[in-house]
Amino acid sequence: MKPILWKWCLAGFVFTCAAGIMLHYLYDLTNGNRIAAIFSGVNESTWEHMKLMFFPLFIFALIQSVYFKEYANFRCVKLAGTLAGIFLIPTLFYTINGVFGKTPDWVNIGIFFVCAACAFALEWILFKRNAFYSCSPRFAVVLLLIIGVSFAVFTFLPPRIPLFEDPITNGYGIIK
């Protein structure tokens, strides 16, 4: 029996938003624990906010995979939703800041919620349309793992480009 898609998408949205908020503060709450740094935001850079989207989406996909065995396109749809969610963050953030200038925190939180909603809305549409059956599930898993490893590596060794710059401290990655 196939799971009820809209309930899973709603649950995923709530989980991603709640986990993203918790991960935003985890690094500080653990007094700068380097293990926590891999999964949580270590500064206010756009990259770190993309990471806050990725790991809850990835964890929810692991949970969901137990119940979505009947969907041969599961991994590819999850990849598409994840890519949409993480790439919408810089797109919306830089667009809104370019138009209005510096935005208050509530707008940035709203951007995160909108991106999470878009990720799950896209997944719902793709599952309903039975899309991506020709996509390789192995490719999807490998790409998701590469993205996850990239978030971990660039936490400790970030490139010196604006995407990785903390707008508050002008630092990059873990600041000590």
Word description of this protein:
The protein is an all-alpha fold. It has one domain. It has six helices and no strands. Helix 1 runs antiparallel to helix 5, helix 3 runs antiparallel to helix 6 and helix 4 packs across helix 6. The longest helix has 27 residues.
End-to-end Cα distance, whole Å, is: 51 Å
Global mean pLDDT: 93
* Helical content (DSSP H or I, runs of 4+): 55-70%
Question: Number of domains in the coordinates?
Answer: 1
Rg, Cα atoms, Å: 16 Å
Q: How many strands in all?
A: 0
Output the helix-strand order: HHHHHH
- Residue stretches low in confidence (pLDDT < 50, at least 5 long) are none
Overall morphology: globular
Biggest pleated-sheet summary = none
Number of helices: 6
Q: Structural class of the helix and strand makeup?
A: mainly alpha
As an assembly, this protein is single chain
Percent range for β-strand residues: under 5%
Give a brief outline of the structure.
With 176 residues, the chain is mostly helical. Helix content is 69%, strand content 0%. The radius of gyration is 16 Å and the shape is globular.
